[in-house]
Design goal:
Chain lengths: 171, 317
Amino acid sequence: MLSALRSLWTVLRHTFRPRVTVQYPEKSVYLAPRYRGRIILSRDPDGQERCVACYLCAGVCPVDCISLQATEDESGRRYPEFFRINFSRCIFCGFCEEACPTCAIQLTPDIEMGEYKRTGLVYEKDDLLIDGPGKYQDYNFYRVAGVAIAGKDKGEAENEAPPEDVKTLLP
Amino acid sequence: MREIVIHLLIIGGVLGGTLTTASGLIWLERRLLALWQDRYGPNRVGPFGLFQPLADTIKIFTKEDWIPPFADKTVFVLAPGVIIVTVLMSFLVVPFAPGIWVADLNVGLLFFFGMSSLGAYSLILAGWASNSKYSLLGGLRAAAQTLSYEVFMGLSLMGVVMLTGSFSLRAIVEAQHDLWFCVSQFPGFVIFLIAGLAETHRLPFDMPEAESELVAGFHSEYSGMKFGMFFVGEYLGITLISALMVVFFFGGWQGPFLPPLVWFVGKTFLFICGFILLRAGLPRLRFDQLMAFGWKVLLPLTLLNLLVTGAIALLRT
């Protein structure tokens, strides 16, 4: 009987406690930068697409929501012809971000993706691609990789020595 | 002619007032429970979410009204009406303020007991007519609970009747002019509070409903407005028991400065909040604990209270 009265008193004291609910549409909760929300494709600091269409994200995706088609420009730089994420399937696990060798695909703290039509949740490359480098400001895959593309020949990448001339015997 | 008009006005006022209170309680209960659980509760529809009951009503009216094919249709449809009618009938004898009552019966208290016993039929019939085991269990619990708690609910008020010398609720209120019965009849008050909780099937005594054990108890099979009527009936019951608590033990409309009706409504409101606090704070009892507590603790206490009050009343004369 006494414990019942005590629990009533405890409950009554909660009248003056602050409420924990966040009134969402007016105020929003803080989502950390590493929160796994809407997926984007980023560009390198030069403003070109980071994605090299290696299919690793599509391969690791547990729900198969990513589909893409690789192609090359005239200089040999790979990029996706189309890149499509079906967000009605996506479970926001972040595996694609982990798998990406070029830091192209990233998850953002945006969660407001409501749609009235299911087809609206299928994001094409135009919807995914952003103008900036996202979470990795300085990283530029083609500037560190030894692949020749337009404006950068072999041996011109960062920390890269000029290629050896294998035809000569001189040291 | 004028008297008839006034009487009709009072009847309309009581009917409208009680029903409005009952639907307002849906909002109040949700807001208060939320407050005590550090949440907000419904606060979107209108100012402070006050129009939430309206939205709920629109929703519940547009729901499919499904009668299971295995149910006893006539009784199934009739049962939700019984609880509303009986509880509303009990408001007949409640004196709200001097002159504001529907009927000043000289057996007002007995009339209330009769009506609240009839109200139990609603639950039992609903449980029986649903023809499902959970509903039946809920109905059986309602029957057993009402039977056992009705006994000392009545007996707990006999002390009040002894001190007043009348069954009329108006006389009972007027007899508390000098001292409220919650002082002189404190055990009676506590027992009536517990019995009233059991009578309205509210937590911690909501055995007939017991959603964690019996799906939804006696109204498992109900949907749409029939379910809504059970809901409103429950809230009407809370209002009724709170109002009667005020009438029997807290001096009814009596109080200084403010007009009598304000006093009555204010006191009733406090008791309603108390009911909701009990729901927020206490877990449900086990059914056998409830019965044992009733027969082994409360009944002897009530009889003792009755004996002592009787002896004092005899000594005084």
